[in-house]
Amino acid sequence: MYGQIPPPLRKSQVKAIEFVRRNRLALIWGWMGIGKTRIAIEIANRLAAIKRVTNVLVVCPKSVIGVWESQYLQYGGGTLRLMPFKVGTTKKKAAMIRTALPGYMAVFNYEAIWREPLAKALRLERWDMIIMDEVHRIKAPGSKVSRFAHSLTWRNPNAVLLGLSGTPFPNGPMDAYGVFRFIDDSLFGTRFVDFRERYAVMGGFQGYEVKGYQNMDEFDQKIASRTIKIESNVVDFPGVIDQDVPILLPAKARKAYAQMEREFYLWLHEQDKNAIAVNAAAKIMKLQQITSGFVRSIDLIDVPLHTEKLGALEDIIDGTDEPIVIFCRFVFEISMIREMLEKRNIPIVSHEDFVAGKSRVFMAQIQSHSEGIDLTRCGDRQCRRAVYYSIGYVSPALYLQSRARIHRPGQKQTVIYHHLIATNTIDEKVYECFDRKADLVKSIMSQVKKEEN
Question: Which residues contact 351 (CB under 8 A, 6 or more apart)?
């Protein structure tokens, strides 16, 4: 709470604060757990104390708003009033911004800021500091949220602009454009086509495929001028154990999987060699649904196929009384896991209630709970176990971020990750790609091309 004395800042955090003080426009690039949120709060409060900052806008994933609230209580206590907008309509939020007295830190989620009438209220407000937490969320330059983030910068030309991320460019150098269009658009300009022409080597189908990169020395110099990078080795982490739990699909599921896999590879062979990756991703997801335990009919009804993964999960839960985080992807499997937990009288809770110790199990959908939250605590106990039930089609960067929910500062015990992997299926390919930090769709399509040649 406000009356508590927070622990002293680490040297790496002090260095980051000084970098932002000197530069005003900055990216703090640091792996999960190095304290990026605290750094941002410290900067905002120091600037508010000298009247450099009056109103601060923070944008983050929805699941992280509560983290900002708790960390501000822990590390804040400055002159700024915290206004975390976790619930309410955009109309109500807009009204609160229009009537708010100066001297506040407003925290919104990415999906809310560009929607009217909130977007108009945010555009009309004067912001002295804008913080984009998990700034890679605005990497796609054509997205509404990325364009809106850029519009805020030219409406507030003297604002301190701060991006926070452990993986700012998850897909490679082309992601840097959207990120730095917000932080400092003088680095790479305001036309993505010019940026791509300067730094990408194009080829493939109609010249729209990035085949490589060029002028990387210049690129790196520009990035470095606005970036403070904090390496993970500044924090001591406990050890990690990865346990693969092999899942043998029953005959009915194997038959369904084999048929769908044949159809998928036939489809790939029939396509142009530069088949649209989005379509391939959708078909891969159907294979993952089968390994998870169901198949979706043409009527969009989820039909159960097996409970092999559910049984393995039950064995893990029954085999220990320790807190456990379960990462999953599909609504159907979430409902199966929920039913199983309810039969065991294990409460279904939010991540805040899990941290408070109101249940020893937390179901985390990997897309929404991989960033920003700390799951190392469950009441007065440590949480050191996570089960990957299924993860769908996600990037290696998102997978690594999910692992850091329990493998981060504050963790005192060896961390154990249980991976439920259906043998001889797409599950194995997913983890192979994670190990190589490779894109799953591109890896499969590359394999098909080799077979054709």
Answer: 63, 66, 362, 364, 369, 373, 375
Number of Cα atoms under 13 Å in the Cβ half of residue 248:
2
Neighbouring residues of 111: CB distance < 8 A, sequence distance ≥ 6: 62, 145
What tokens does 232 get? 């993970």
Residue 177: half-sphere exposure toward Cβ, Cα within 13 Å? 20
DSSP 7: P
Residue ranges of domains in the chain, CATH in brackets: 11-234 (3.40.50.10810), 240-452 (3.40.50.300)
Which residue type, as a one-letter code, is found at position 350?
S
Q: Are 133 and 68 in contact (CB under 8 A)?
A: yes
Beta-carbon contacts of 295 under 8 Å, excluding residues fewer than 6 positions away, are 256, 260, 286, 289, 302, 303, 305
231 in helix, strand or coil?
coil
pLDDT tens per residue, range 351-402: 999 999 999 999 999 988 888 889 999 999 999 999 999 876 677 888 888 9
- Taking CA atoms, 109 is separated from 93, 122, 147, 312, in Å, by 12, 13, 15, 35
Q: Given this model, what pLDDT does residue 1 score?
A: 35
30-72, pLDDT tens digit by residue? 876 678 999 999 999 999 999 999 999 999 988 888 889 888 8
Helix residue spans in 331-418 (DSSP H): 331-343, 351-355, 396-403
93: tokens are: 């939020």
Axis-axis angle for helices 308-318, 331-343 (nearest 10):
40
Tokens of 181: 């269009």
Axis-axis angle for helices 11-23, 36-49 (nearest 10): 50
Nearest CA-CA partner of 338 in 312, 310, 315: 310
Which residue type, as a one-letter code, is found at position 25? L
pLDDT above 60: residue 276: no
- What amino acid is encoded at 444 in this protein? I
* One-letter amino acid for residue 301 of the chain: I
The answer to whether 306 and 250 have CB atoms below 8 angstroms apart is yes
Other CB atoms within a 10 A radius of the CB of residue 82 amount to: 18
What is the Cβ-side half-sphere exposure of residue 306, based on CA atoms within 13 angstroms? 21
